[in-house]
Amino acid sequence: MSISLKINGRIQLVDADADTPLLWVIRDTLKLVGTKFGCGMAQCGACTVHLDGAAIRSCMIPVAAVAGKDITTIEGLSEREENSLQRAWIEEDVVQCGYCQSGQIMSAAALLAENPNPSDEAIDNAMSGNICRCGTYPRIRKAIRRAAAYAEDASL
Amino acid sequence: MSAARGVSRRNFLRNTASGGGLLLLGFCFNTKAMARNRRAGEPHSFTPNAYIKILSDNSIELMIGCSDMGQNVVTGLAMIVAEELDADLDRISVKVGPVDPEYFNPYARSMLTGGSTSTYANYDRLRNAGATARIMLIAAAARHWDIEPSRIRTEKSIIIDAVSGNKLRYGDLSKLASSIPLPDTVKLKPESRFRLVGKEVGRIDSEEKITGRARYGIDVQLPGLCYACVLHPPVFGASIVSIDDAVAARMPGVRKVKQIDSGVAVIADSFWRAKKARDALKVVWDEGAWAGTSSATLDQQYRELLKDSAALVKSNGDSKQAFMQASQVLDETYELPFLAHACMEPLNCTVHDHGDCADIFVGTQSQSGDQKYAAEVLGYAPDKVNIHTQVLGGGFGRRASKTADFVTEAALIARGEPWPIKMVWTREDDMTSGFYRPKYTHRVRVALNKKGEIDAWEHRVVGQRVSIGGFVDSGKSAAFDSAQVEGLVPFPYDVAGLRVEARPLVSPVPTLWWRSVGHSHTTFAMESMVDEAAYAANADPVNYRRKLYRKNPRMLKLLNTVAEMSDWGEELPEGQGLGVAVHDAYSFKAVCAHVAKVRVENGRFRVEKVWCAIDCGFAVNPNGVRAQMEGCVIFGLNGLTGQITFDKGRVVETNFHNYQVCRMSDAPQIEVVIINSGAEMGGIGEPGLPPIVPAVTNAIYAATGKRIRTLPARL
Question: What is the pTM assigned to this prediction?
Answer without folding.
Answer: 0.94
